[in-house]
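Quick illustration for those who missed Monday's session on complexes.
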Amino acid sequence: MNTYARLPVTFVKGEGVWLWDDQGQRYLDALSGVAVCGLGHCHPRLTKAICQQAQTLIHTSNLFRVGKQEQLATRLVELSGMDNAFFCNSGAEANEAAIKLARLYGHNKGIALPTIIVMERSFHGRTMATLTASGNRKVQAGFEPLMTGFVRVPYNNLDAVAQVAANNKEVVALLVEPFQGEGGVNIPEVHYLQGLREICKQKDWLLMLDEVQSGIGRSGKWFAFQHSGIFPDVVTLAKGLGGGVPIGACLAKGIAAEVFKPGNHASTFGGNPLVCAAALETLAVISDENLLDHVVELGDFIRNRLSTQLANQKGVVDIRGQGLITGIELSVPCVDLVKKALERKLLINVTSDKVIRLLPAYVMQQSEAEQVVDILCSLIKEFLNN
Ligand SMILES: *Cc1c(COP(=O)(O)O)cnc(C)c1O
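Prediction with pyridoxal-5'-phosphate bound:
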């Protein structure tokens, strides 16, 4: 169906941070399939793990125990400090699981119409519940009636949450991204998550973090909440988890980990042997190659180099980010830059109309990052000075 305004290019091969189109032209990838391919394209270890699993067992059913799924759950629990995991196939589905979990938690407490606090400019997916939770009219328009049971507050504003806490007796949970990716690469102030944790604890609300984009190393830690020294009750994951295969997860801790009982939630494909083998190997490579340290260093390098090259450039409003997500906010809409970059054989993204977003693979070398920044800065200058 006509759901994407696609760019006129077909990639047929990938290796590391490089892609080749069907004309044999090579492109430098600073998008990574929108924060999915953290190990770059076709990392030899990931490719091998997928091939081996495909030769052994691809799918059984969640009617039976799934060894690879149990191993993956164990590893995610180790890395996150959470207690258990539910596996699904996408970010939206991971958030659906979280939303259902919060509603059931509320009903178990005797709250008839449980409500979840969500944020302005948030993005949680395109299913009915998750587009309702998203703070973006563009993803909602035309799909009314939206769902009930959500109340919206400004992002990075603890007072607004405290105000809801004082007035609304139906709230059972709060769903928030540790940084907003689609919403324009918005990084909240350092104590924001701690403040939310405090309010949620006082009110017995579940703190539910959408780490679909920020999780699995993108921020420079395994999970972005680990920068704050807090634990959430629920964390959702997807994008980077499988290195490119479709897998999502909803992790829970403490009381939240006890909410779902057999029959409450399910997925036919969720956590099958093939995708779990891919995710296990993705996590193993991130550990073995010390990629988290590299994510921190390379992210700082990219933002420093951007700041230097764009220092006196009129029209550059802000350069911000965390780990390997970087946003360059311009004073004018700049969606056209994506096409111009493609002509220069560079893949970038623009979100929220005015924010150029870079999401390179964790395996990108410094010399490759230099090329990304240099091509991009020359494009930005050309664009803003004409
Ligand atoms: C991409 C994204 C989603 C949606 O994930 P899908 O796999 O496309 O359903 C949800 N939340 C956040 C924060 C995302 O970045």
